[in-house]
Amino acid sequence: MIFAGAAGTWQLGDRTVHRMGFGSMRLTGSAAFDEGTPSDRARSIAVLRRAVELGVNHIDTAAFYFSAIRSANELINSALGPYPDDLVIVTKVGPGRDASGEWLPLARPDQLRGQVEENLRQLGRDHLDVVNLRQQGLDSIEEHFGALADLRTAGMIRHLGISNIRPQHLAQAQAIAPVVCVQNRYGLGARTPSQEEILAACGRAGIAFVPFFSIAATGGGSGRSAPDEAAVVSIAQAHGVTPAQVRIAWTLHKGPHVLAIPGTGNPAHLEENIAAGEIKLSPAEFALLDAL
Which of 37, 95, 175, 222 is surrounded by the most beta carbons within 10 Å? Predict the structure, then answer.
């Protein structure tokens, strides 16, 4: 039986989540993310409900995940409200888009409250479980993160995370308020020494590390697929699974604090992604993949 809890659990502050979660970005088909045509609305809602049925209790989203006809937050609200007690919805602020979809400059610290309130409205909640500050080009995130810490004190946010960071940003944030997760691009085809440093630092501090675009093969760009390495294909064949499932499994083997949030609007791919949490790579297989 496919179950999101097969890979175990982790704590996001006082919330327990299964390590296999779901990312909502692909449901929108937004051209801003090179995601193509949006899924049929009814199918998207069915995918979200099926994810929860299979044990997913960690969903990643953002108010800026939208296309001309789809909004990730609206889909989540329609599909899952009233929300299960154990469901943790993680959103992010910092970037923004206007009503036509054009990207805006990174929000100023004083604008972050408005972005938090927009997520609250769209999701139909009176507080947000976790909010990630997604930074873009900042040397210091102290002022921005401090503004979110104030909203946490005010009760609008339960827990805080950071996204798209460099190593120094983690220490800056921790000096202000507890950090429960770091969300960065990371995968077999997308990792650097600094990302490995951040992953290790999160492990030492008990902070969840949540990679995005982890299924993208080398050179795939913005989460798009590309030819897989021979080692990935060979291991997939040995386990009777897909290369994408091997990529997800590898990230989960990087540490018990690593959470997966693969997204899809395809019901079959959803079940494949969740089933990847059951794959047990041998030490030799993990080492072969880790050397790529």
Answer: 95
- Per-residue DSSP letter, 265: S
Intra-chain end-to-end CA distance of the chain, in Å: 31
Closest CA to 72 of 31, 123, 112: 123
Q: What is the mean pLDDT of residues 260-281?
A: 97
Which percentage of the chain shows pLDDT scores above 90? 89
List pLDDT tens digits, range 121-168. Answer: 999 999 999 999 999 999 999 999 999 999 999 999 999 999 999 999
What's at 230, amino acid-wise?
A
Q: Would you say 146 and 179 are in contact if contact means Cβ atoms under 8 Å apart? A: no
Handedness of CA 186, 225, 290, 268 (dihedral sign): positive
User: Which residues are designated catalytic?
Assistant: 65
pLDDT tens-digit series, residues 100-123: 999 999 999 999 999 999 999 999
Query: Are β-strands 181-185 and 208-212 bridged in parallel, bridged antiparallel, or unpaired?
Result: parallel
Strand, coil or helix: 110: helix
Strand partners, 59: 22, 89
DSSP category for residue 139: S
Is the CB of residue 150 less than 8 Å from the CB of residue 178? no
Q: Using the structure block, give the residue that is written with the tokens 């299960």.
A: 84
95: cis peptide before it, omega within 30°?
Answer: no
Tens of pLDDT, residue by residue over 223-260, are 445 567 899 999 999 999 999 999 999 999 999 999 99
Q: Give the DSSP letter string of 235-276.
A: HHHHHTS-HHHHHHHHHHHT-TTB-B----S-HHHHHHHHHG
Task: List the structure tokens of 154.
Answer: 């005010």
Show the CA angle centred on residue 202, arms to residues 33 and 242, nearest 5°: 50
Which of 172, 143, 129 is closest to 16 using CA atoms? 129
DSSP letter (8 states) at residue 8: -
